[in-house]
Amino acid sequence: QTGKFTYDPGFLSTASCNSAITYIDGDKGELLYRGYPIEQLAVNCDFLETCHLLLYGELPNSDQKSEFVNRVTHHTMVNEQMHFFLRGFRRDAHPMAVMTGLVGALSAFYHDSTDINNPEHRDIAAIRLIAKMPTLVSMAYKYSVGQPFIYPKNDLSYAGNFMRMMFATPCEDFHVSPVIERALDRIFILHADHEQNASTSTVRLCGSSGTNPFAAIAAGVACLWGPAHGGANEAALNMLEDIQRRGGVEKIGEFITQVKDKNSGIKLMGFGHRVYKNYDPRAKLMRETCHEVLNELGLHNDPLFKLAMALEKIALEDDYFVARKLYPNVDFYSGIVQRAIGIPVSLFTAIFALARTVGWIAQLNEMIADPEYKIGRPRQLFSGAAPRQVKPIGER
Ligand code: SDX
């Protein structure tokens, strides 16, 4: 008996939990936040209304919205010491390395919101994190390009404030066009939550130890970075640019052949999903947003967008992808939109983290508020050596 036995690796990914926040029907390609279809939220609401919905379970009325927006707006600045913390990084550090550090560092500054078991602490931590993520992401960007940080302005919208902190300089202010502002706000909505994905499960598991909310969200940022998860939008755009360099649409067939070759290790980034075995509803909305933004910017002939649509068409008709129910996911078009509005590729996943922060917090708070919750402890199926005796080194 070696003590070894077979086990199903899938078992390790089937840990489940109860939640009332987001519902996904992978076969139908449906996504609902607190019962509202994503298609309706993306068109009829803005991101901060969606944050209110995810956090408190209801869309706000106009008074509730004003109060919520006011709270978030007045927490957009970060402690000045965070600027010095950031300056410890190399200028060429990946923004997700910087964000992992900055978000975790918030727990060193806001002691009135670190007790995860205190509902008031949790609520102020939620407001602070939602408010400060755009400031931190824009700081990471400004630091990487050697420009001074731009402070938030309280008379701007959430998306407008972010774009100004990204692209204004002391020499010249920046005003985002309403179409771009709305497109970015919609991108935030589409990325806000997605049930028990890898980074959300990470946040739940981390928070279940009783650590502070900032540390738990920092763990989610670290997990989202992976190319199989939130890093896929950066990888998808790099993939499209690579195909474009090699000859564009004419080279799609060659690329698809490589993807089908298991030994190539090449994936069609922005395609496939652990849950959706139909078209990711977010990808449809992202493609529409792409159209709107590219038309607004006079880029409707953008070669990468044309390449993406050609690649999608071919993949959706190819038996390999059809048999495996591989459809575009949220990451397939999001990179093209962000690139069109001037966001550097390296920042795509940081923006995903900015938007997903509200979902992580809502899921964490839901778990902590459940009196039955205990520290997470996934079970293992042991497949190592059977018990044995230590021999003196001369006999090993
Ligand atoms: C996100 O979980 C979430 O909700 C995540 C997310 C969120 O909002 O939080 O939606 C965000 O992470 C979206 C996914 C972004 N990742 C990518 O786009 C990277 C490329 N996609 C793959 O890495 C993959 O599709 C996964 C990781 C997303 C899912 O992997 P699975 O679970 O292995 O997919 P599957 O079981 O459906 O795969 C079935 C088959 C396998 O081949 P066989 O072994 O059956 O021959 O399809 C293959 C896979 O190898 N496959 C792909 C593929 N995705 C799966 N082949 C080529 N290209 C792909 N993209």
UniProtKB/TrEMBL annotation:
Entry's Gene Ontology cellular component terms: cytoplasm
Protein transport keyword on record: no
Domain of life where this protein originates: Bacteria
PROSITE patterns per UniProt: CITRATE_SYNTHASE
Record GO biological process: tricarboxylic acid cycle
Keyword terms: Acyltransferase, Transferase, Tricarboxylic acid cycle
Protein name: Citrate synthase
Reaction(s) catalysed by this chain's protein: oxaloacetate + acetyl-CoA + H2O = citrate + CoA + H(+)
Matches recorded under Pfam families: Citrate_synt (PF00285)
Active site residues per record: H273, D331
Pathways per UniProt: Carbohydrate metabolism; tricarboxylic acid cycle; isocitrate from oxaloacetate: step 1/2
Similarity section: Belongs to the citrate synthase family.
Source organism of the structure: Scleromatobacter humisilvae
Molecular function per GO: citrate synthase activity
